[in-house]
């Protein structure tokens, strides 16, 4: 039994604990999202709607957030693929690779960006580190000023690991989708026709 499991019987979480941490997460996300440069995000959004397919690649929880973004971009009507899925084709010139890595050094993500660059694809990246290898490969970079997951003593966030980066990444990608949709006259009902029906 793990130490956490052993302690579980003695832990008495109460409503005040949850309320305090809801406020913590809400306030950290709001503060950090407010520091994201909207012009950087606008440049990235314009990359998404250029001709070509969109591919997304990320590891761990960042990768899960990009999967959610891929779904919304598919609803928007774009051709979107998730790197690593069995039906994902080869990326090619004119396509866009959308990537995320808090550190900007995640080996699999950087390798995907290098491969995409060699193929002539464009790269749009989310990271905390403007001096990272990933940022250096990107045609559009959005800096999310959150703590990196290995920065356990950070004054930026009281949350564990890369939680704040991943939370703000979700908020920013949702804002991208909403902004793209705002510039169309497409009704929600039309977007819904693209929603999965084999669930």
Provide the descriptors you would attach to this structure in a database record.
48% helix, globular, 5 strands, Rossmann fold, PHI/rmpB, 199 residues
Helix content: 40-55%
The CATH class: Alpha Beta
Structural class: alpha/beta
SSE pattern: HHHEHEEHEHEHH
Arithmetic mean of pLDDT: 93
Low-confidence stretches: none
Give the neighbour order of strands across the main sheet. Answer: 2-1-3-4-5
What gap, in angstroms, lies between the N and C termini?
Answer: 36 Å
Instruction: Specify the biggest β-sheet.
Output: 5 strands, parallel
**What is the CA-based Rg, rounded?**
18 Å
CATH topology name: Rossmann fold
Strand content: 5-15%
* CATH homologous superfamily assignment: Glucose-6-phosphate isomerase like protein, domain 1
**CATH architecture descriptor text:** 3-Layer(aba) Sandwich
Shape: globular
The number of helices is 8
Number of domains: 1
State the total count of DSSP E strands: 5
Structure, described:
The structure is a single chain. The protein has about 200 residues and is α/β, with parallel strands linked by helices. It has a single domain (about 20-185), classed as Glucose-6-phosphate isomerase like protein, domain 1 (Rossmann fold, 3-Layer(aba) Sandwich). Helix content is about 50%, strand content about 10%. The chain has eight helices and five strands. Strands 2-1-3-4-5 form a five-stranded parallel sheet, with helices on both faces. Helix 3 (about 40-50) crosses helix 7 (about 165-180) and helix 4 runs parallel beside helix 7. The radius of gyration is 18 Å and the shape is globular. The two termini are about 35 Å apart. The model has no long low-confidence stretch (mean pLDDT about 95).
